[in-house]
Amino acid sequence: MVPAPTKKKRWLRRLLWLPVWLAALVLLQVAPLRWIDPPTSMFMLIRQAEGLGEEGFELRQQWRDLDDIAACLPISVVAAEDQAFPTHRGFDLKAIEKALEANERGGRIRGASTLSQQVAKNLYLWGGGGYFRKGLEAGYTVLIEAFWPKRRILEVYVNIAEFGDGIYGAEAAAQAFFGKPASRLTGAECARLAAVLPNPKVYNARNPGPYVQRRAAWIQRQVRQLGGPGYLE
């Protein structure tokens, strides 16, 4: 007769299975979104909760397929944030190395997050630093790159990125700042939207200050040097 497992052994087995169940849960969060459009993101949920106590606050976001967004916006975002996007597998090692070297020299802290990492953070996690959150971000990034094509990563990014306080995604940004649908954005407007991404609560695409104007002009030059939207094909 086989003795029944003790309570301690049962709990030990459950603990051993915990990583497997957690991995399965994360996989179920990522894989279906290759085909299913996410209705919201963790960043949007957090901002919506913060806005409950703010009079007149309204979170705006409308999903648009990539074909319904002006081609200048994805390439402007890539030119501004992650020029190695078509070729890396989620992490730009050269950019990380340069960022570490720059940060060691002091001065302004430089980041090296790819668009894939930003999608992982914005969609599933929260802001701020810390090794734990960075570890989760890396795990989600690996799965996103494994299960989604590059075009899908871009599509999700331009639909959940924050372009202004409470303004998420290309369609809401185009309507809020330029009074037109995202499909009709011009190259200059796309560059201005991409230019505010480092701090959309401070910078304004409709009334750009000197920094946004300079950065938008630089982004347009980078788009031309990369070869335009064809760079992403």
How would you describe what is shown here?
This protein is an all-alpha fold. The protein has one domain: Penicillin binding protein transpeptidase fold (Orthogonal Bundle). Helix content is 55%, strand content 2%. The protein contains ten helices and two strands; from the N terminus they run αααααααββααα. β1 (162-164) and β2 (167-168) form a beta hairpin. The relative contact order is 0.15.
The percentage of residues in β strands lies in: under 5%
Q: How is the largest sheet built, in terms of strand order?
A: 1-2
The top-level CATH class is Mainly Alpha
Give the total of beta strands.
2
Tally of structural domains:
1
Provide the fold topology.
Elements: H1 7-30, H2 42-50, H3 72-81, H4 93-104, H5 115-124, H6 131-147, H7 150-160, E1 162-164, E2 167-168, H8 170-178, H9 187-195, H10 210-226
Antiparallel strand pairs: 1-2
Helix pairs in contact: 3-9, 3-10, 5-6, 5-7, 9-10
Quick summary:
The protein has 233 residues and is mainly alpha-helical. Helix content is 55%, strand content 2%.
For the structure shown, list the relevant keywords.
2% strand; mainly alpha; Penicillin binding protein transpeptidase fold; single chain; globular; 233 residues; two-stranded antiparallel sheet
